[in-house]
Amino acid sequence: MDCTTYIERYLDAHVDGELGAVEAGAVEQHLKGCANCRLLYAEERAVKALVHERARRYQTPAQVRGSILAALDAVDSAAGNRERPQRTRRAALSALRSARLWIPTAAAAAAVIAFVIFHGGGVPPAGAVPAFDVAIARYQHFDAHFEPNVPSASPADISDAYLGHKMPGLLWNLQPSGYRLVGGRLDRLSDGSLAAFTFYRGEGSSILCAFMKAHGMQLPQGATQTVGGHSYYSYKGYRVCMSYYPRGDFICVMVSRNTMPHFVQDILGTSL
pLDDT tens, 216-239? Predict the structure, then answer.
């Protein structure tokens, strides 16, 4: 199974738990080796969870729901296309995702189906890794003083600001690991490209998440471990987690001073 087949034929049914045993087995086999599709699956689950949460909080009046359903039925009948409801649903989910979403990290969903590769403690990357150096330099500054430059009253505000500048709007939800979201920043790097920096602070520790253009960057050698497409490094006295964002040419680099076991647990401790 390739990514196109999974996304177009199986993704929605997988999220809804509607796959048969044979299809589910094929899907799980594909996801084990595809971090991009794991992230898409996690995003779809997050959107569905958000829809359920908001639906419980804000009940649409029965008369309005009936009018909407009647209008959709009329459109479906006129189109005569059985695939229309599926496309309508996917379009609605896409619209929700591109709007004000507090998307929890994909790491937890990925961890359920991921395999963990240990490398005997790992060897630090040979030579400099510019993306790591950028993230660490910002982390050092922000750990002493972080001042958001985008609206940061809520995760949705930060996500909106990032999406409005064509940056990934995916935010890590580190609350289950004891971290509060401090805020977000959009800054230009030395090469003129835009980067998004989201800062989290916990009791006695902190984490910075940086989204930057990949510019063809390859995954550095020397990862301590790899969990569900997220590779962890010990680099210049810091703990670094790197992964690729599946849409656009972006990488996610997370930095902390915490010990590696705690850093990995902090990220895996998130939930959808």
Answer: 888 888 888 887 678 999 999 999
pLDDT value of position 225: 85
Report d(CA 38, CA 30) in Å as an integer: 9
pLDDT per residue as tens digits for the range 172-190: 889 888 999 999 999 999 9
What amino acid occupies position 206? S
Instruction: In whole angstroms, give the CA distance from residue 195 to residue 167.
Output: 8
Helix ranges (H only) for the chain are 3-5, 11-15, 21-32, 35-57, 62-79, 84-98, 107-113, 130-144, 155-164, 260-268
At which residue do the structure tokens 């029965």 appear?
A: 62
Q: Please provide the distance, in angstroms rounded to a whole number, between the alpha carbons at the two ends of the chain.
A: 26
Rounded mean pLDDT of 206-220?
91
- Topology (CATH) of 107-268: Phosphorylase Kinase; domain 1 (3.30.200)
- The angle that helices 62-79 and 84-98 make with each other, rounded to 10 degrees, is 130
C-beta separation of 252 from 135 below 8 A: no
Average of per-residue pLDDT across 262-266: 89
Domain ranges of the chain: 3-98, 107-268
pTM of this prediction? 0.59
Proportion of the chain in helix, strand, coil states, percent, rounded to 5: 45, 20, 35
Sheet containing 250-256: give its strands across.
Answer: 116-118, 225-227, 230-235, 238-245, 250-256, 205-213, 194-202, 180-188
